[in-house]
Specification:
By secondary structure, the protein is an all-alpha fold. The protein has 9 helices and no strands. The radius of gyration is 37 Å and the shape is rod-shaped.
């Protein structure tokens, strides 16, 4: 019985020794017993990954800015796709580097990568919102309407009222002066509305947009009153020019509604603000973290190769 107990104790001691030896060998393999050439190759691989991540991050930022500044939906979408591809490349590099650091990195390197991962997550969140807005180009579309069809409709209205004024200037009717005054007032007030569209499209503040819209509404009310008064004065003989002015002003107001809706979405203004503020700040944080990580890897000591005895 005593012999069996001693044998059992011996087996436990042997098992413990084997386990301890396995742990020691694993640690030596992973952290200390690789050849200098293998250590250098492992170090170079990690440095190359970090440098590629930094390059992809910078490329993503440039593509994102191009998406924000592009003047067509197609160009915006093309640059946005490029930005997303580069962000995905950074994430792939991060995952690969995380695996490498788990097997052969220092605690400092692992902490720096974790710090980068936190900043990069914020980078990705901002980038997602920014690119979704950038490709909509609502401000550019509002500008296109304002300086295209809307300006054309108002120009046709102005020309029709100008012809009406010219005709009434040669008239001897007692209402002629009143007609001229109403027509000129309508032209001036309509042009005031037009001049408020561009500031509205460029505005970032909802409060200031409210103020601009209130001014437009006030001018619009006066234009409508002027046109209604003109219609009342000219109803006996009618006026093709007045009909043209009425129809073109109605068209201008339809377009103005579309313009203000697009302007309110403000995707170009908001995406540009994100790009120049939050995105730029988190981009710098990410680059600083990667630079620190690269420095830490490069500073790792490389063991010298053992000198063979002569």
């Amino acid at each position: 019985m005593a012999m069996k107990s001693g044998l059992k104790d011996l087996l436990w001691l042997a098992a413990g020794a084997v386990g301890t030896l396995a742990i020691i060998l694993a640690v030596l393999y992973l952290h200390g017993e690789q050849s200098p050439a293998a250590q250098l190759a492992f170090q170079a691989r990690r440095v190359a990954l970090v440098e590629q991540m930094r390059l992809s991050l910078a490329s993503a930022s440039e593509a994102e800015k191009s998406a924000v500044m592009a003047t067509t939906d197609q160009d915006s979408q093309t640059f946005a796709d490029q930005a997303r591809a580069q962000v995905a490349a950074v994430e792939r590099g991060r995952r690969e580097l995380e695996g490498l650091l788990q097997t052969g990195g220092t605690k400092t390197e692992q902490d720096l990568l974790a710090q980068f991962a936190q900043a990069f997550a914020e980078f990705q969140r901002i980038d997602k919102d920014l690119l979704e807005m950038a490709v909509q180009n609502t401000n550019l579309k509002a500008y296109t309407l304002a300086f295209g069809p809307a300006a054309e409709a108002l120009s046709e209205m102005d020309a029709a009222l100008s012809r009406l004024v010219t005709r009434e200037a040669n008239s001897t009717s007692p209402e002629a002066r009143r007609v001229m005054q109403l027509a000129d007032d309508a032209r001036i007030r309509a042009l005031r509305i037009q001049t408020l569209l561009a500031p509205h499209i460029a505005e970032e503040s909802d409060q200031k947009m409210d103020e601009l819209e209130a001014r437009m509404a006030k001018e619009d009310l006066e234009v409508r009153k002027d046109l209604e008064s003109l219609a009342a004065l000219l109803k006996s003989g009618g006026s093709p020019d007045l009909e043209t002015a009425l129809s073109r002003y109605a068209r201008f107001n339809e377009l103005r509604t579309q313009i203000l809706k697009l302007s309110r979405e403000n995707t170009n203004v908001r995406s540009l603000a994100l790009s120049l503020n939050q995105k730029r700040k988190v981009m710098l944080l990410c680059q600083d973290d990667l630079a620190a990580l690269e420095h830490a890897i490069q500073e790792e000591p490389i063991a010298r190769a053992p000198v063979s005895p002569r």
